[in-house]
Amino acid sequence: MAETTARALKLLSLLQTHRHWTSAEISERLGITERTVRRDIDRLRELGYRIESSPGVAGGYRLEAGNALPPLLLDDDEAVAIAIGLRIAAEQRLVDGTQTTLSALAKLEQVLPSALRRRVAALGEVVQPTPGGGTAVSPALLGELALACRDHERLRFGYTSASGEASVRRVEPHALAPAARNWYLVCWDLDRDDWRTFRVDRIEDVQHTRVIAPARDLDPAVLDEMVLAASSWSPQKVEADVVMDLGFDAFRAHFAHWGQGATAEDAHRTRWPIGGADFREALYGMLYIPEGVEFATDFPEPHRSELREVLGRVIRALDAPAPPARPDASP
User: Does residue 172 carry a pLDDT above 90?
Assistant: First the structure.
């Protein structure tokens, strides 16, 4: 009986990790026959778990949402991860985040063994959340997008860009990531045929297609760079456009994810918005325009005059004779 109960608990844990499992997949994972799988499914149903079954070759089982939350099975590491996540979430920009997450954390820590409570307390002292200040997002929306990332389900949603342009996007969600006090969704954009990053608080009207796509590979370093580039793109004190003699495809190949906000001016030119806290930061982007590519900019005054004066001093310094070599300080 103990063996049967342990096996059923392993089955329940498996069902909680994914939306759908075929009978053959469960049988292989647990090392049991498909007939035993069916018996254990029936046993879980008797305990009140709503498990949906579908016939056919691609059929299988999925754990349905019920009227009440059933018990969750967590190992030690999962319990600690959830507790730390709740502590951090309580201080993030989540709608009703503090009240909801602290309530959940209190319930969880109440039932944790003392050893795990000590681990949570120790980690809580050294894990520091980023400061608040971003735009609040709904935990329900984050959960919905997280499930789509996990299951590789294609989504359709409305999106409003930083410039206020509204569009409908068809994507394959890949990952959620917090950065610079906001949440970002990294996706494969089906209409652009490329990777794109979307700020979650600008996503609305999420529609599920129920289409499960094969997982796409994305180097973690590239993912981090995409999120960093997206989080660094925001209204700046000094803003300007650069129009360069470079086709949009060549521009994307050169700047990759750092070319945020760029648009094709025509078949041979690209318009790219740049900016910074001052004219020096705004200049930084122009320094990465490929050698030999001509460009023009509408750099605003008085920053345009300031930049011209600084560049003039740099040119004069480069044209002047080099200073004497530094005397050798060695004896």
Answer: yes
Q: How does residue 93 score in pLDDT terms, banded at 50, 70 and 90?
A: low
Kindly report the three-state secondary structure assignment for every residue of the chain. Answer: CHHHHHHHHHHHHHHCCCCCECHHHHHHHHCCCHHHHHHHHHHHHHCCCCEEEECCCCCEEEECCCCCCCCCCCCHHHHHHHHHHHHHHCCCCECCHHHHHHHHHHHHHHHCCHHHHHHHHHHHHHCCCCCCCCCCECHHHHHHHHHHHHHCEEEEEEEECCCCCEEEEEEEEEEEEEECCEEEEEEEECCCCEEEEEEHHHEEEEEEEEEECCCCCCCHHHHHHHHHHHHHCCCCCEEEEEEECCCHHHHHHHHHHHCCCCEECCCCCEEEEEEECCHHHHHHHHCCCCCCCCEEECCCCCHHHHHHHHHHHHHHHHHCCCCCCCCCCCC
Q: How far apart are CA 244 and CA 257, in angstroms?
A: 18
What are the tokens at 67?
Answer: 């009227």
Residue pointed to by tokens 């059929």: 59
Q: Please report how the helices 34-46 and 23-30 are oriented relative to each other, as an axis angle in degrees rounded to 10.
A: 100
Q: Give every CB contact of residue 20 below 8 A, 6+ residues apart in sequence.
A: 60, 61, 62
- Grade residue 67 by pLDDT with cuts at 50, 70 and 90: very low
HSE-up (13 A, CA, CB side) for residue 40: 25
Q: Answer yes or no: are the C-beta atoms of 116 and 79 closer than 8 Å.
A: yes
Which tops the pLDDT comparison, 68 or 255? 255
